[in-house]
Amino acid sequence: MHHVARMRNAIQPYAWGSATAFTELFGIPNPTREPQAEIWMGAHPKAPSRVEIDTGWEPLDRLIAQQPEAILGRRSAADFGPCLPFLFKVLAAAEPLSIQAHPDAALAAEGFARENRLGLAPDAPERNYRDPRHKPECLCALTPFWALCGFNRPGDILGLLERLCPDALRGEIAAFASAPDSGGLRRLFAGLIALDDERRRAVVAEALARAERADDERMDWVARLGRSYPDDIGVLAPALMNVVRLEPGQALFLAAGVPHSYLHGTGVEIMANSDNVVRGGLTPKHVDIPELLRVLRFDPAVPEPVPTRRVGRCETRYLTPAAEFALSALRLAPGDVFLGADRVGAEVLLCVDGSARVAEDGPEGRTLDIAPGESVLVPNGAPAYRLTGQGLLCKAGLPGDER
Fold first, then answer.
1. Which end of the chain has fewer beta carbons closer than 10 Å to its terminal beta carbon, N or C?
2. 78: Cβ contacts below 8 Å, ≥ 6 apart
3. Taking residues 58-79, what's their average pLDDT?
4. 102 contacts 295 by C-beta, under 8 angstroms
5. How far from chain centre, in Å, is Cα 44?
6. Does 251 lie in the same domain as 190?
7. Which of 128, 137, 176, 138 is nearest to 292 (CA)?
8. Average pLDDT, whole number, for the chain?
9. Residues 253 and 321 occupy one common structural domain
10. Is 248 helix (H, G, I), strand (E, B) or coil?
11. What angle do CA 270, 401, 2 make, to 5 degrees?
């Protein structure tokens, strides 16, 4: 495969998705008004993109298996094997996602092997590890985007819990106040998610009653979570974790062990090609408390937007430590030309706004026009290309020397 090619991408209808976001952004019809949560661009076996070639539309994972070096490039195939090392998505959250964390590489390999030995089916709902890989990820906002990310500072956690649950959690608050460090935070968190039903209901009821009477954003998120999950201890998450608002163009990087939950908004997301998620709340899905405590990092930290670097006139690169992916925003004005000549693997170009033309160099080069919501695959073996038009595109690929 040696030319740029159009992609058809699956839309995942998860219950937390938006019924309107993809229609408003990309003009994708949704006459049934069902939730549309994620557009997947990649070769994940759960929902591989289909790619247009001379003989028709073929699943990308099958094409890669047939032509790994032509599509991925020699370096990518050697480093990551015959699979696309990243999964690229558009995510639209109308309701909060589960509180979750991703394992590091060692825990992923060990957990996958352990669950295989136990005989768990690959799609078993009680599985935490569906593959042996880690899952660093980066979320870049397309609209204002709210998330929970990482544990809050101990002093702030104490103050917020005293506002929300001074009676129902009197003992837990006192114990944490006597040891407000990472060990104390671990004991506090472990105790909260293991509360018996009667105590959990009492804690949640007191928190929601007090949050409804407050008038700040953090308390508002406690109340909103309570309306969606009225019996879930995860409603306390805005007290335990950092509440983050991203403006369009800002990005958040999530390393292994960092607890997080996407609350509301639309963004592009890129991650290592893994489906390993260990959940801790705000979900009807499987929650494995012992495994979550193994995965989580209990070091409080204030999350910062991913640093960026301007490259040339059109490109802004998001500088993450991930080896499996790189993300850039390409903003084109009339007369601009972006040159795609220095690839180190396959790329995916997604048009977010406006329109663009991808033109390969050379006498046999192909030209494709792409509109909002459309994407193209640029195999490693394709010629250099020129990108023109007016609008915003996102480019997913592998990092070069700038990482």
1. C
2. none
3. 94
4. yes
5. 14
6. no
7. 128
8. 94
9. no
10. coil
11. 65
